[in-house]
Amino acid sequence: MTELFIATANRGKLLEFKRLVHTCVGRVFSLEDYPDLPAVLEDGATFEENAVKKALSAARFTGKPAIADDSGLLVESLNGRPGVHSARFAGDAATDADNNDKLLREMAGVPHSRRTAMFHSVIALCTPEGTCEVFDGELRGVILEEPRGEGGFGYDPLFLVPDYGLTLAELSLHDKNAISHRGRAFLRLKEFLQRR
């Protein structure tokens, strides 16, 4: 692929995406190149709907193939919540700390055996003509009763990865990216781009 637009305002995600595609894309574009890109209301019922909506809007606006992602936390004892509302679980202006506090309040008294959870990520790749491909990844873990670690963002300090005995906030960025839900979806996208 000669050109690709990355539809994210998150600098961390942008850098991750750029690193991922640098061997299989000639030139990468971002919001720095298209600052007037219209915002997209993420009102889909699923991660896939939101990712496709963002990527398709960006592809049509820029005239270039575009990628976008949507991801979140699904907690078994909360019937899959916060799900697509993960970033605004405690309200539209919620901080990571607000969301973590709400999660801990709602899970107060839930035994360890019922604290299982999953991070899920969907990356959509869309063309200006409207063709879209989706790639997903997941990471299973356990929600702790108190945060651990200083790294990462979002729910990372509460999300224990059993195979490592560490939270995502305690893992190095390299290790986190290698096993994370987004990392796994990235890998599927990269394999797709390399085949093209």
Q: What can you tell me about this protein's structure?
A:
Helix content is 31%, strand content 23%. Helix 4 crosses helix 5. It is α/β, with parallel strands linked by helices and 196 residues long. The N and C termini lie close together (7 Å). It has a seven-stranded mixed beta sheet with strand order 2-1-3-4-5-6-7. The protein has a single domain (3-195), classed as Maf protein (Alpha-Beta Complex), CATH 3.90.950.
H and E order: EHEHEHEEEEHH
Radius of gyration: 17 Å
Q: What is the helix tally?
A: 5
Spatial ordering of strands, largest sheet? 2-1-3-4-5-6-7
CATH second-level architecture: Alpha-Beta Complex
Helix percent reads: 25-40%
Morphology call: globular
Largest sheet: 7 strands, mixed
Poorly predicted parts: none
> Which structural class do the helices and strands define?
alpha/beta
* N-end to C-end Cα span: 7 Å
CATH C-level class? Alpha Beta
Number of domains: 1
Q: Return the average pLDDT rounded to an integer.
A: 92
How many DSSP-defined strands? Answer: 7
Tell me what portion of residues adopts beta-strand conformation. 15-25%
CATH topology: Maf protein
